[in-house]
Amino acid sequence: GDSVTQMEGPVTLSEEAFLTINCTYTATGYPSLFWYVQYPGEGLQLLLKATKADDKGSNKGFEATYRKETTSFHLEKGSVQVSDSAVYFCALEAGSYQLTFGKGTKLSVIP
Amino acid sequence: NAGVMQNPRHLVRRRGQEARLRCSPMKGHSHVYWYRQLPEEGLKFMVYLQKENIIDESGMPKERFSAEFPKEGPSILRIQQVVRGDSAAYFCASSQDRDGYTFGSGTRLTVV
């Protein structure tokens, strides 16, 4: 079945550091890939998405590129801020309406 | 245009009681999805509903759990005779067609 594996956290970074959160997937066909962010006590918000190979999703300084050859969709940001502290979820949708999520990576950014 | 509204935000139930979780989709959205997030886990799909119809309940536990989305009113996720293992965050999402989920803020159920 479909699955998403993302790096385990927690990840602690200093403000302005570079962020990478790894995500790899297993799916039949050609899934759409997503990154969601969950701030403390809130629901999930779509951060970015990509629907086909080599697409780059970007939003709020975050980027991720759909790499079919390595089945990966790593999240990156060049300079993190304290306000980026949250849990980040990688997810895929493989031709149906169901989203398959990774376990989430908690990011803490310290001043 | 309010987003997806879930209530209550927090719910505490004793073992054996019933829990009712409500979800009002975004205006104009006719598709509702329920997901469960266990501690330290990602979200897992439970059920997909349209008005008065259950489309896919393949992620629902076979016993004690049920869901509905009536013609009028919110979608309801009902858990009968709750047990400690039901403690989790339950998220509802809605969409206009089968794209573009919007998630609610969730209901955090604690069974004591």
Brief digest:
The complex is a heterodimer of chains A (111) and B (112). Chain A is mainly β and 111 residues long. Helix content of chain A is 0%, strand content 50%.
Question: Would you kindly provide a written description of the structure presented here, covering whatever features stand out?
Answer:
The complex is a heterodimer of chains A (111) and B (112). By secondary structure, chain A is mainly β. Helix content of chain A is 0%, strand content 50%. Chain A has no helices and 12 strands. In chain A, strand 5 and strand 6 (44-50) form a beta hairpin. The model of chain A has no long low-confidence stretch (mean pLDDT 94). Chain B is mainly beta. Chain B is built from no helices and 11 strands. Chain B has strands spanning 5-7, 10-13, 19-24, 31-37, 43-50, 53-56, 65-68, 75-79, 88-95, 102-103, 107-111. The mean pLDDT of chain B is 92. Chains A and B meet through strand 6 and strand 11 of A and strand 4 and strand 5 of B.
